[in-house]
Amino acid sequence: MVERHRDPPPLRTNDKRTMATGTALWLVLLVGLAVRHEAVRRAGLLWWYPMCASGIVLGLIGLLYLKVRPAQLARRQARRDAERRS
Fold this sequence. Notes:
Layout: H1 15-35, H2 37-42, H3 48-85
């Protein structure tokens, strides 16, 4: 049997910047589609519009989640600390 190695520590990332960049890319694609609307329509790719809109909406939800999450984690930690002291 192969010996299991320890998991590496998680990488530190800037989640807000990553989420904002992805959301902005979806927005740029949507604008590009709108500029070339006639070509998109002729190619039968109108389904790309709702796909881009979905990417933008989910990106905004993700940004909202990243804004709210630290406060949720702090409340959870405060509850745990209070339970330990009791």
